[in-house]
Amino acid sequence: MADTTFGSCCVDEVGASHINADCVIHYGHTCLTPTSTLPAFFVFGKAPINVSNCVNNLLHTADTAGKPVMVLFGLEYAYAMLDLKKAVLEALVSYESQAELEIQFSDVVCSVLEPSGKSSDFGGIMELVGVSHANDAAGVQSGTRHSTGGLVWNVPQGRKVEEYSMFWIGSENAAFANLVLTFNGCEIVRYDATEDRLVTDLSQQRRIIKRRYFLVEKAKDANIVGILVGTLGVAGYLHMIHQMKELVTGAGKKAYTLAMGRPNPAKLANFPECDVFIYVSCAQTALLDSKEFLAPVITPFEAMIAFKRLFHLIF
Fold first, then answer.
1. pTM for this predicted structure
2. What pLDDT shows up at residue 3?
């Protein structure tokens, strides 16, 4: 089941509660954000991929980048990662390169999610931040753990994520857009498994980053802010709504909370008094293209950037 009211990547806990379900099985694309009340099992699917061609492009990228390469992928390619790792190790034996190649693979968080049960846990809402500190299983080597789109990886202590080149395997979807926005300080290339080609031109994504910065600056001048409820299942969404209210009112602005399902220009046009909207949802659906909207729509993370300084100036 998918939450068709808001986004198909989220688990439809509301629909499942209508039939008193004990568990939800979610097929297809997912953001893997934590659930609130029900456990969920995910079936990612298996999209076709040419492993040998992907390996050749990966080695070429690692050779030309001159820095460590982090491999990230759409969850529909998770099934092929073991074969891809084996193929990379075999290819490295005969691959001629002047420099030693360093390639790391990210891991899927899990295929089963248990409800958090804690309203204060809003990691799913704030996945755009994507940073936490963690130790490995042995507890010897510490590092920084990063996450995006249901993937996690560790950056060793003493290194920064900006020192890596990102190699994304998958389509140009919301998960990839989230990656580009979150790790905009990294070099990113995309391997299109559908067309078996490497895409290095990310000018469109860079323009999106510039527009998000523009929306943040525009939000600073807002007087009335609408808080859009974009999920009823992601763990911690109520806590995030309350936090946004405190942030907005603390910055000397008025806040209205609106629940209307998936936003569109016609719906939001009924609230012309709102100068900006904050969309509280999962990290992937929160990146709403609001070019056709009368007022900009920003994420909670962008709202913190826009209003945090005003909050501190008042208090």
1. 0.80
2. 52
